[in-house]
Amino acid sequence: MSRRLFMKSMVSGVGLAGLSGLVEPAVAQGPAAAGTSEWLPAYARSQQYRSRKQSSHDVTGGNADAWGIKAGDSKEIFSATGSGVISHIWFTIAAGTALHLKELVLRAYWDGRDKPSIEAPIGDFFGLNLGDYVLYESEYLACSPGQSLNCYFAMPYRKGARLTVTNESNRDVGAFYSNIDYLEADALPADALYFHTQYRQGTPTVAQQLAGGKNVDGATNYVYCETRGRGHLMGVTLGVVQNAEGWWGEGDDMIFVDDPSQPVIIGTGSEDYFLGSWNFGGRQNAHAFAYHQYGAPLIQSAERTGGRYCLYRFHGDNPVTFSKYLKHTMEHGHANNRADNFYSCAYWYQDQPYTDFPALPPVAQRLPTVSRG
């Protein structure tokens, strides 16, 4: 998402958690200025924030513009006090292991909390859920040539923010490059919400034979996220490793809103939720695709044992609102009849920093492999 479009969306308040109060329109100067908010772009008006950046630059003025992170160590990559909004994150990494996208863990802490509201392997956070670099662009996440990772989700905070990266591999990271752009503000709008990312996995999901082959309550679905509070869901990324032949999809999305007993939103199949269709083209004709709100940028060995998929679906057009409870789920196969490996991240905003996350699986269990039954 371009910075021009980011600022435009901040003014409109659409999809970015009500941050419109950070930017005020220009004061009208008589009849000629009437209605300027309708035709004058946001970037041509006075901005009510202070632009800042924190990066891994060489503080001596040299060209050693990266941090090393030793095996087992954590590095604080961002720290701010007061009110602000992280508007863009960029990383690129040189590591001693090909699995570093699953081994490095990104965490974010809002307003002095001691538990994170973002906790995910770095690759999963950026939509690379199977640990491989795949070039793609979406509205909020992207991977560019040169293995650079970009995030444009707005991340507000009122009292402060802290981001860390932990190296859970047994090899040192030689160079971790970071640029984090953010806005300082005197105050945030009252309706500004906190950004969250929750990682989950099923390795494998548990295949079942439900009565009559029907799943009416979603009780045993794969869970993308579960939270309590008020806010809205922005979407998910998902990596799939097939443990058996055939099409792994046909799993309906089921979203529980404010009532944990029954889903309010029910879809028609996994490929439909990710806004593809017909098995993404099937065993012989599946093609990767990537668009602003949805995509499957990685499809390898389609519908075969060991087949690999990376997918994303965002709800920027219609974030799924909840007032006290949200659980986003999906069947694994029709009526949960398959046992493939799922690795996912869910992204949402809510009114208070939420930190009641399930424990992050150890790194050995996060690595994407075929599970042999």
Principal-axis shape: globular
What is the averaged pLDDT score? 91
Q: How many β-strand stretches? A: 23
Give the name of the CATH architecture of the largest domain: Sandwich
Q: CATH homologous superfamily of the largest domain, by name?
A: Protein of unknown function DUF2961
pLDDT < 50 runs, ≥5 residues? 1-32
Strand content: 35-45%
- How many helical elements? 7
CATH class of the largest domain, named: Mainly Beta
Helix and strand sequence? HHEEEEHEEHEEEEEEEEEEEHHEEEEEEH
Helix content bin:
under 10%
Assign the CATH topology of the largest domain.
Jelly Rolls
Please describe the biggest sheet, giving its number of strands, its sense, and whether it closes into a barrel: 11 strands, mixed
| N-C termini distance | 42 Å
Count of folded domains:
3
- Structural category is mainly beta
Rounded to the nearest angstrom, the radius of gyration is: 21 Å
Notes on the structure:
- The structure is a single chain.
- The protein is mainly β and 373 residues long.
- The chain has three domains: 1-48, no CATH class; 50-185, Protein of unknown function DUF2961 (Jelly Rolls); 196-366, Protein of unknown function DUF2961 (Jelly Rolls), CATH 2.60.120.
- The protein is built from seven helices and 23 strands.
- It has helices at 3-12, 36-39, 100-103, 122-125, 270-273, 282-285, 363-366; strands at 50-55, 67-69, 74-81, 83-95, 104-110, 118-121, 136-137, 141-144, 148-151, 155-157, 160-167, 173-185, 194-202, 222-228, 231-241, 253-257, 265-266, 289-290, 294-300, 308-314, 320-322, 325-330, 341-350.
- Strands 3, 5, 6, 11, 13, 15, 18, 19, 20, 21 and 23 form an eleven-stranded mixed sheet that branches. Strands 1, 2, 4, 7, 8, 9, 10 and 12 form an eight-stranded antiparallel sheet that branches.
- A hairpin with a 3-residue loop joins β7 (136-137) and β8 (141-144).
